[in-house]
Amino acid sequence: MATFSETVKARYDAVERAADTFGRMISVKRLRPAEMQTVRRIIESDSMSIMGDAMVAACVREIDGTVFPAPKDQGELDMVFNSLDNEGMQAAGTAWVRLMGLDKTAGDSGAEAEDPAKNSAATPA
Fold first, then answer.
1. Residue 105 pLDDT > 80, yes or no?
2. Which residue among 32, 46, 66, 85 is least packed, with the fewest CB closer than 10 Å?
3. CB neighbours of residue 4 within 10 Å
4. C-alpha to C-alpha distance for 55 and 93, rounded to whole angstroms
5. Mean confidence (pLDDT) of the chain
6. Residue 107 predicted with pLDDT over 80
7. pLDDT of 72-94, one tens digit each?
8. pLDDT in tens, 13-32
9. Which CATH architecture has domain 9-101?
């Protein structure tokens, strides 16, 4: 059985990748709590859309071989946004969803796609 430290290390070492429509490979990693706080301080917005985009961009660690550290200020976050552009943001979002286990169809997430009929409270006809 893995220790707490091993489990946490594995969580933050995990990388998920997705290609954008230009064929660039976008790699994302989970943000550590302090990194999330840094992004919140940089953004200073209550908009869930703006904050969500910023968190996804901050998770980007590589774009087609170019390495990006977790952003520490607005300039570094802007550099990631500009490097991604719209197509890269979409790919980063796809990879982030898989990384966070929110993709119910992912084979390695351990989750099965839900069948609405199985979860229905209706009486079968």
1. no
2. 46
3. 7
4. 10
5. 87
6. no
7. 999 999 999 999 999 999 999 99
8. 999 999 999 999 999 999 99
9. 2-Layer Sandwich (3.30)
117 touches 48 (CB < 8 A): no
Q: Read off the DSSP letter of residue 110.
A: S
Query: What whole-number distance in Å separates Cα of residue 70 and Cα of residue 31?
Result: 8
Residue 122's Cβ-count burial label (10 Å; 0-12, 13-18, 19+) is: exposed
Q: What span, in angstroms and rounded, lies between the C-alpha atoms of 125 and 113?
A: 24
Q: Which residue has the tokens 């774009």?
A: 63
In the three-class reduction of DSSP (H, G, I as helix; E, B as strand; rest coil), residue 101 is classed as coil
What average pLDDT score do residues 48-65 get?
96
Which residues have a Cβ under 8 Å from the Cβ of 10 and sit 6 or more positions away?
2
Cα four-point dihedral sign 50, 41, 101, 115: negative
